[in-house]
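REQUEST ID: PR-0412
SUBMITTED BY: lab tech R.K.
PRIORITY: routine
TASK: structure prediction, single protein chain
INPUT:
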Amino acid sequence: MNALIPDAWAQAAPGAPGGSPFAMPILLGLFIVVFYFMLIRPQQKKAKEHQSLVSKLASGDEVVTNGGLLGRVTEVGDHFVTLEIADGVRVKIQKFQIASLMPKGTLKSA
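STATUS: complete
OUTPUT:
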């Protein structure tokens, strides 16, 4: 009826895609390698550095906790650290809560 729109004829589906059968496993392997180097490896490195920091804590070190407390280490135990956060004010926290080691003299300037 309509001469402007030609009839569409069904065509057979093509047999196989033109790509290599190994393209998908190679792409998946490449994705895993990138994922490892971008996410997993840096996280492991950071965890090792934190473990080293916690194992080297000594009395007199000035530290910041994950909660934001700034204090001087007065006692180091196996699992807990005692911090003096003000004159005569001491708190006991778990070792893994230590976020970073501060330079000596930080408490005097704070």
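NOTES: Residues 58-110 form a domain with the SH3 type barrels. fold (CATH 2.30.30.60).
REVIEWED BY: pending
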